Amino acid sequence: MDLRRAVCVVFVSFVVVVTVWCTSPVSAGDIVHDDEWTPKKPGCANRFVLVKVPIWIDGREETEFVGVGARFGPTLESKEKHANQTILTLADPPDCCSTLKTKLTGHEAVLVYRGNCSFVDKANVAEAAGASAILIVNNRTELFKMVCESNETDVDIRIPAVMLPQDAGASLESSLNKSLVSVQLYSPKRPLVDVAEVFLWLMAVGTILCASYWFAWTAREATMEHEKFLKDCSDEYLNSEGAGPSGVVDINMTSAVSFVVIASCFLVMLYKFMSVWFIEVLVVLFCIGGVEGLQTCLVALLSRYFRRAGESYVKVPIFGAVSYLTLAVSPFCIAFAVVWAVFRRISFAWIGQDILGIALIITVLQIVRVPNLKVGTVLLSCAFFYDIFWVFVSKWWFHESVMIVVARGDKSGEDGIPMLLKIPRMFDPWGGYSIIGFGDILLPGLVVAFSQRYDWLAKKNLREGYFLWAMTAYGLGLLITYVALNLMDGHGQPALLYIVPFTLGTLLTLSRKRGDLKNLWTRGEPERPCPHHIRLQPSQSEARS
């Protein structure tokens, strides 16, 4: 039992360090790129939008490619039903840098290849030949932002221009050589609010709520037991350490500050060495933590109904004393994690990942705690700057957001790392997932759980305490994160940028107003008189008389 707890504590430390980066990827995926670095001018000031390109071959819809719109040209339709189906023709010459030999009637889109002249020149040549749209194939598998050169003046282009990746161009050229190919071009907009974001918000808030009440209840039980023993305990017991939940790890100032350095190093390592094998290692570690978390939660829930099994222990080699209930639950937890790991690429595997993740977060919040508001403030402040740096500032050094790249698993061939809660965007035409990292829940959750523990020990009701205010502040901060996410067209947001000021600001302001700030800042728990001191005072008075 002690070994199992030690393994869990070690893994918890790993999880807090590794997954706190996920504070940023509250994300929905970028479909609009308003790039301020690329040049703009009248007629060449469009935002870069992703474009859906459905393909029909001999009248049957076969596949769909995704391209990116250019700075120039008209705005594309946002609804599929309003987009015209157009015959696709291969340009001659293929680079479309000189007058086309291909005869067009004004209703065809032309497929051309990048190179030898500017994008604007290609679009002008295609438009002059009578093309209704131009699809430019990149010379790489990635998409490229098509802009106007600074010396170009003829940018009044009236046909849409879309960049396609190299593999899409090769597939289309192969089809054009033997079949009739038609295309549609449209750029659907995301819904203002997606159900996935609502459920993700409820999951995050609900996880902290459950963990806070669970830990506060455990702390209160331990305190009541402590006070019961104090009434008639020996001097030897009085000189021993105070009571508290067993197996709890208190965060100190040093670990709160060093977190930023360690987490940053690990994040860079993930960024540099992200690969399939690295993801596999993270999956194994996630499964170990998920098994421990799910087992802890299930044992706590079932022990109310199977009290005898929960209180009866048997010695297990290496692990020591383990309850019969834990032995009964463990195989199910292990099997659950293994099944998820094997089938994690199927469409509904997110359900198992979220179950394991929530159980792990709740368990972490039972084992790790913030002893006072001072440590909580330092921890969240460090995470606040860490989050902003690796989401926004890192672009200056790495030319891309390190945290978002790691969250998406761009270099691994996987759909992101497992240390995330995610829900599919069910009503989004672009699909994908709304995600939130463990760190966005864990770090603020430590401070929220601290406020709940303080309220219970101080015997404060919801209105007079701090938990309700901290919980509300966290919920509002996360809500503002999703508002910002939608206002910025799906660009990943550093959630702690919004959550930390709301949560910390509320606790600090309210505690100062009530006069509890000093106690919360240093002691972290209400002062309680010693029962022995109260009982001995009359005897001391009588002796003096």
Give your account of this protein's structure:
The protein is of the alpha/beta class. It has helices at 2-19, 119-129, 166-176, 195-230, 235-238, 253-273, 276-302, 307-311, 324-342, 349-367, 373-398, 402-408, 438-457, 467-487, 496-514, 517-523, 531-544, and strands at residues 32-33, 48-57, 60-69, 86-90, 108-113, 133-137, 161-164, 181-183, 249-250, 313-316, 320-323, 368-369, 420-424, 433-437. The protein has 17 helices and 14 strands. The chain has a 7-stranded mixed barrel. A hairpin with a 3-residue loop joins strand 10 (313-316) and strand 11. Helix 13 (438-457) runs parallel beside helix 15. The longest helix is centred in the middle third of the chain and has 36 residues, at 195-230. It is elongated, with a radius of gyration of 30 Å.
